[in-house]
Amino acid sequence: MTVRSILAQKGSSVVTVRSDTQVREAVRRLKQANVGALVVSDDGATVAGIISERDIVRALGDHDTGLLDMPVSRLMTREVRTCRPEDRIKELMGVMTHGRFRHLPVVEDGEMIGLVSIGDIVKCRVDELEHETNHLREYIVGSR
C-alpha cells in the first residue's frame, strides 16, 4: 500500500498558513479545521515549514501568551521531512516513529499534493491487516 492510496481515500486537501501568520490565527485555524498541524507555505505549493499543536504548547513555556502575536515562522519546524506518493506505508510508519513526528507533507515534482498523518497510516495498515486476516480465514475454511 502506498501514500497515493491514502490520498485517494482521504483527499489531497491541506490546511496551510503563510509564514507571517500570527500564532493566534494558526490556533484558530487548527481548531476550525480540526487538525493537529498546519503546513507553512507562502505560495500554497511549497513547504516552508510545519507548525503543530505540540510546537505551540511547548512554546507557551518559553514565551507565555505573548507567543500568540508572533509569526508562525518563529515557532515552526523548518526542516520538514516529506514523502512521495509512491512511498510505502510500512516504511513511513518506521520513519514517523523514529523521527517522533505525526505529519508528512506529500510532495511530487516539487509541489505539495497532500498531507498524511500517523492516524492515516495506522488506519491504512489496520485495514490492510484486516483484509489479510479475512483472506486467510477464507483460505482455511475453504481448504477443509
Structure description:
It is a single chain. By secondary structure, the protein is an alpha+beta fold. It has one domain (3-142): CBS-domain (Roll). Helices cover 46% and strands 16% of the residues. Helix 2 (23-33) links the parallel strand 1 and strand 2 (37-40).
In short:
The chain is of the alpha+beta class. The chain contains 5 helices and 5 strands, in the order αβαββααββα. The protein has a 3-stranded mixed β-sheet.
Describe this protein with a few key phrases.
144 residues, CBS-domain, 5 helices, alpha+beta, two-stranded antiparallel ribbon, elongated, 5 strands, 46% helix
The separation of the N and C termini measures 31 Å
Average pLDDT for all residues = 92
- CATH superfamily, by name, is CBS-domain
State the shape. Answer: elongated
What are the segments in which pLDDT stays under 50 over at least 5 consecutive residues? none
β-sheet strand percentage: 15-25%
SSE succession: HEHEEHHEEH
Number of domains: 1
SSE layout and pairing:
Blueprint: H1 3-10, E1 16-17, H2 23-33, E2 37-40, E3 49-52, H3 53-63, H4 89-99, E4 103-108, E5 111-117, H5 118-142
Parallel strand pairs: 1-2
Antiparallel strand pairs: 2-3, 4-5
